[in-house]
Amino acid sequence: MKNIFTILSIFLFSISISAQDYSLTVNNGTGSGSYFYGDTVHIFSDKPNALHVFSEWTGDGIEYLDIADEWHTLLVVPSGSNISNLTLQANYDQLPTDITVTMEMMSLFGEDDGVFMENVMKEVYSSIPPNPKGIVFLFHGTGGQGSSMYSRYELLSLAKDLYYAGYGTISTDANERTIGDQTGEGKIRWVANQAAQQNFDNNIDLYNIRALKDTLIARYGLENDFPFFSYGVSNGANFSDLAAAANGFRASAHNTGNGSPSLYHLREDATPVIWIQSINDQNESADSTIALANYQALLDRGICSEWHWLQRSPLYKKRFMRSRNNITQQKSLEIYNRFLEFPNLMNDEHFFVIDDILEELPSHFYDPLGLTPAQINDAESQMKVMNADHVGNGDFNKTIIRFFENTCETTATTFPIDTALHISIYPNPTSETVNIVFPKTIMDTGTSHALPLLVVSDIMGKIVFKKNISGTFVNLNLGHLTNGVYLISFQINGQIVNKKIILQK
After folding, report:
1. Are 428 and 478 in contact (CB under 8 A)?
2. Is the Cβ–Cβ distance between 288 and 309 less than 8 Å?
3. What's the CA gap between 151 and 170, in Å, rounded?
4. In this structure, which topology does domain 102-312+393-405 adopt according to CATH?
5. What residues contact residue 88 under an 8 Å CB cut-off, 6+ apart?
6. Is the peptide bond before 427 cis (omega within 30 degrees of 0)?
7. C-alpha to C-alpha distances, 413 to 331, 410, 416, 444, nearest whole angstrom
């Protein structure tokens, strides 16, 4: 009997060994473990210290990463890879030691009940390196203020990454933050609705941003064509797109907001926009259907734009260290362990199973943790990022910077410098079907600019699927393929365009 148990134990042990296809080691980050080919693995770098930024991933696993220079990325090793061990390492670079965020009171303008006001003192925050490559205006969301663009961890991470890349940042308060609610809604917002009719004469917020832009040009001796950009969250995202158009900025980064449809459909000065939308956004002002229609309107007009979904991500032990209020590694672990006491909130992979996690969080959840109100606020921001809800996030900082640096300029008769920026593929990752949206301006130019054949190949280059292209919208069903990374290829305007798609069932 003992021999039978010994043989059985060896047999079961051998099964457990072969049950996983490869092992992954992540240095300076989270994601180490054993996985099957085709698994989608979330990889997170450790929090950099105050004077450092995450720079990139290195190691033999980078060819399997979705994006190799974002602190949070995905890794998929496709079937048949014959890989047994992989290593990744998070790398960090040091910021200049003289980097600062300065606050100064500046005399700007205001409006109260329709009455224009001069010499209105407003807080203006900025962090501008010597000889900046560009300057990015940062716009707070509903109820926020200019200082929050530097006081919240995820938003500060963008300002740091921009500074490291040679870009300055600047923020201030909306008129309603300074003067008070002007609409009777009881909310503090930028004036961003009915965008087609907004200009410097009737929009005090646009008036102030132009004044700040002119001040920067004079103060730093900038050329008139110096590159300005903008970034905003929620209502600030809607205003960012409007401010970019009115002020002639190069591009706007739009994080979690609908946008005002008339801007994207009608304004001749509309600029390229990179959209960062949350897949599980619970805020009615960030309806993804409206946002997608606005994004598509830009593409149809030949204005290059990008679309990215913030996907849900799992809880991990160091998550809550992403705080501006000193949540230590030990305290982050305590919050992590606290979640384990409420298994109804998460699945076995530590993803939240409730759409609005803060609504369902038990009222006594924080009782044993000893967190300050500021730390609770930071922790809840991280919960919303994990749940891909309505919150600013730092998951696409390098992607935003790349968009700013490679923004394509188009007219009605020319193609963008980078056609790939024009083409939207979603959802990505996908469990079965994927949608591909081509800009109408490309498809309308005739068949010489778009071959009617779309090709899907695996990461080894083997063609696994072909489909004829017809029209500006293509729906692909990839359910018959195994989990992994695939390339979708097509030729437009003489360019071979490759888009990466992750299939995860």
Report:
1. no
2. no
3. 13
4. Rossmann fold (3.40.50)
5. 24, 25, 26, 27, 29, 31, 43, 57, 58, 59, 61, 62, 65, 75
6. yes
7. 57, 8, 10, 11
Q: Is the pTM of this model over 0.70?
A: yes
Sorted by sequence, the CB contacts under 8 Å of residue 94 that are 6+ apart come out as: 51, 52
Place of tokens 């992994």: 484
Tell me how far CA of residue 47 lies from CA of 323, 335, 472, in angstroms: 9, 17, 42
Q: Is 152 exposed, middle or buried (0-12, 13-18, 19+ CB in 10 A)?
A: buried
**Torsion over CA: 210, 211, 216, 222 (sign):** positive
8 A C-beta contact, residue 66 and residue 500: yes
Dihedral angle over CA of 313, 314, 320, 323, nearest 10: -10
| Number of residues written out for the chain | 505
352 token code pair: 């939240």
74 token code pair: 């995905």
Amino acid at the residue 202: N
Provide CATH code, domain 425-503. 2.60.40.3080
Q: pLDDT tens track of the chain, all 505 residues?
A: 445 444 444 444 444 444 689 999 999 999 999 999 999 999 999 999 999 999 999 999 999 999 999 999 999 999 888 999 999 999 999 999 889 999 999 999 999 999 999 999 999 999 999 999 999 999 999 999 999 999 999 999 999 999 999 999 999 999 999 999 999 999 999 999 999 999 999 999 999 999 999 999 999 999 989 999 999 999 999 999 999 999 999 999 999 999 999 999 999 999 999 999 999 999 988 888 899 999 999 998 989 899 999 999 999 999 999 999 999 999 999 999 999 999 899 999 999 999 999 999 999 999 999 999 999 999 999 999 999 999 999 999 999 999 999 876 433 223 333 444 456 777 777 888 888 877 655 554 444 344 457 888 876 667 788 777 767 778 888 888 888 778 787 766 555 676 778 887 7
CB-count exposure of residue 365 (10 Å: 0-12, 13-18, 19+): middle
